[in-house]
Amino acid sequence: MESTDRRTELAADRNVLAGERTYAAWVRTGFTALAAGVGAKKVLGGVLPNWAILATGTVVVLFGAFCFVAAIWREIWAGAPPPQPDVRRLPRLILISVNGFLVLVCLAAVLGVWFGKTGGG
């Protein structure tokens, strides 16, 4: 019986760590989208019409904001709670604060895409 309990505790630890990897993947994807959306303005300048550059940059940066929100959503509402793990969870307040700030960065980047200078020529 004791080994079964230990396996359950270890499974709970693995669930916590898997959740953190999922959170990190969402944030990594959000950063990539943010960089791609801002970079689209510079790279596509002179290649595509201005409206297409604005649309592309806006959609990709907003997708980045979605990723930051989804990271928190999946972290907070991950499903049925596992047994009490030995591993400490990352503080939710810190995760929400950091991702909230990143969403604001994305909104600022959308303003930069819309009102900043288009690259090329």
Q: What does this protein structure show overall?
A:
This protein is mainly alpha-helical. The protein has one domain. Helices cover 77% and strands 0% of the residues. The chain has 3 helices and no strands. The protein has helices spanning 2-43, 50-76, 92-115. Helix 1 (2-43) packs antiparallel against helix 2 (50-76) and helix 2 (50-76) runs antiparallel to helix 3. It is elongated, with a radius of gyration of 20 Å. The relative contact order is 0.20.
List the helices and strands and how they pair.
Blueprint: H1 2-43, H2 50-76, H3 92-115
Helix pairs in contact: 1-2, 1-3, 2-3
Q: Any key phrases for this structure?
A:
single chain, 121 residues, mainly alpha, 3 helices, 77% helix, 0% strand
**Residue runs with pLDDT of under 50 for 5 or more positions:** none
Helix content: over 70%
What is the domain total for the residues?
A: 1
Distance between the termini: 72 Å
The beta-strand count equals 0
What overall form do the CA principal axes indicate? elongated
Q: What is this structure, in a nutshell?
A:
The chain has one domain (2-115). It is 77% helix and 0% strand.
